[in-house]
């Protein structure tokens, strides 16, 4: 009786393994067809298939304003008015702690009083 059960288990296990192997073979044969068909459908509707196709056309250097914006950014950030406005914004956001080193908060290295202060300021 035990020998008969062992044979059934062995045949069942062998059948499951054979079914898994056949499924893998079938999928490895069918998957490339499905992928190629999907690629063809994308290509038919004009979807870009490579990064080069997806990139926008290059802007001619006479029409490219990026260098001007970069110069303006450097100029504006180095003016005293910008620095003063930035300081006023930081003061209005952070209050009296605007010039404080916030590294300990990023590390969650707070003492009990600082946690309480944050809880009081929190809107949640």
Commentary on this structure:
- The chain is 71% helix and 0% strand.
- It contains six helices and no strands.
- The model has no long low-confidence stretch (mean pLDDT 81).
What structural keywords apply?
single chain, 124 residues, mainly alpha
- What is the 3D form? flat
- Give the termini distance in whole angstroms: 69 Å
Helix/strand order, N-terminal first: HHHHHH
The strand count comes to 0
Catalogue the unreliable spans.
none
Count of DSSP helices?
6
Average pLDDT number: 81
| Share of helix, binned | over 70%
Estimate what percentage of residues fall within beta strands: under 5%
Map the helices and strands:
Blueprint: H1 2-44, H2 51-54, H3 66-77, H4 80-94, H5 103-106, H6 112-121
Q: Care to give the gist of this entry?
A:
With 124 residues, the chain is mostly helical. The chain has helices spanning 2-44, 51-54, 66-77, 80-94, 103-106, 112-121.
């Amino acid at each position: 009786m035990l020998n008969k059960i062992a044979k059934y288990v062995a045949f069942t296990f062998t059948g499951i393994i054979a079914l898994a192997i056949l499924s893998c073979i079938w999928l490895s044969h069918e998957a490339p067809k499905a992928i190629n068909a999907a690629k063809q459908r994308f290509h038919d509707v004009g979807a870009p298939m490579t990064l080069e196709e997806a990139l926008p056309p290059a802007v001619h250097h006479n029409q490219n304003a990026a260098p001007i914006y970069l110069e303006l950014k450097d100029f504006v950030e180095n003016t005293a008015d910008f620095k003063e406005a930035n300081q006023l914004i930081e003061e209005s956001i952070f209050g009296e702690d605007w010039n404080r080193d916030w590294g300990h908060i990023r590390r969650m290295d707070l003492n009990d009083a600082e946690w309480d202060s944050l809880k009081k300021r929190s809107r949640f």
